[in-house]
Amino acid sequence: MEALFYVFSIIAVFSALMVISMKNPLTSALYLVLCFFALAGFYVLLDMQFLAAMQILVYAGAIMVLVVLIIMLLNLSKIKKIKMDLHQVFIAMVIFIILLVEITIYILNGSLKKPTGIYTHALINKIGNTQILGEFLFTKYIFPFEVASVFLLVAIIGAYLFAKKKY
Question: What is the pTM for the complete model shown?
Answer without folding.
Answer: 0.60
